[in-house]
Design goal:
This protein has 2 domains: 135 residues, Rossmann fold (3-Layer(aba) Sandwich); 142 residues, Rossmann fold (3-Layer(aba) Sandwich). The longest helix has 16 residues. A hairpin with a 2-residue loop joins strand 5 and strand 6. It contains 10 helices and 12 strands. It is α/β, with parallel strands linked by helices. The structure holds nicotinamide-adenine-dinucleotide.
Amino acid sequence: MTPADALPRVVHRVALVGAGIGASLSPALHEREAAALGLDYRYTLLDLDLLPAGWTLREASGTTGFNVTHPVKQTVLDQLDDLSPQARDLGAVNTVTVSGGRLTGHNTDHSGFLAGLRHGLPGAQLGRVLVVGAGGAGSAVAYALATAGTRVDVVDADPGRAVGLAERLTAALPGSRVTGGPAARAAEVAPVVDGIVNATPIGMTGHPGMPFDPALLAARHWVADVVYRPLETTLVVTARARGCRVLDGGAMLVAQAADSIALLTGSAPDPDRMRRHLAALVDGTGGGR
Ligand code: NAD
């Protein structure tokens, strides 16, 4: 017996809180990676549709932490004691750590997007990027790019959302260059950007099609999709056929989960191994977060 064997093993109990999460991939994605890291780690679902009204995170005592998803990424802020500076800027969390009874909110969607991009498309030019979609995912993507010094053009079918996001990010990140506008502005900006990110749900199962006119794609663009069910969206397939360097939504999904496991356990997940877990889990058929 080594001295390390004599130490009590740390037990990690993590829960995903959200609505309609029954088909989530997160339990398997987290538990497979935790097992590979040698952790005692259990990941459960707390579906708000099945919990009493008024339930709060504090009622899940003994939990190491939480992942938080739709529709409570913003509303859960009221229940937290602290926020990371990035979660405060974004006004949204996807990970909550519990320590000494204090709940701290973090956002790994933005860090996951950038890590996934750097890992999956090394050397991609980040001078100026078009982000289509200004909702939860678009906010995280635009924030991540702005922190990397990128000039960001956000467009949305609801122009007010894109303009509002640009104003919030400009206020939160002095010196950043983020502008917002209507979806039609994509045609004006596409010829001068290095990359294009789809942060709308268009392309996911139940929302087929292209989020923007495929004629805007040129071989010199890199293209990233945040949609991961399926991984091979119409955008991914079309952009690849045009000769673009392409990143599917699995990259962000895996990297945000890796950053979340790191925050919750202090361990260092392996994103390449997690990508293999994801490939085995979706097996080309898609899946949920
Ligand atoms: P959301 O509803 O908050 O925002 C979507 C935005 O897209 C809305 O503002 C809407 O007006 C806009 N939009 C829709 N169609 C458009 C179009 N054709 N052109 C321009 N704008 C359009 O949704 P969300 O939470 O941001 O999720 C978007 C997608 O991102 C979903 O498919 C979700 O599964 C995915 N997602 C992926 C990850 C990941 O880790 N890969 C993380 C979060 C979300």
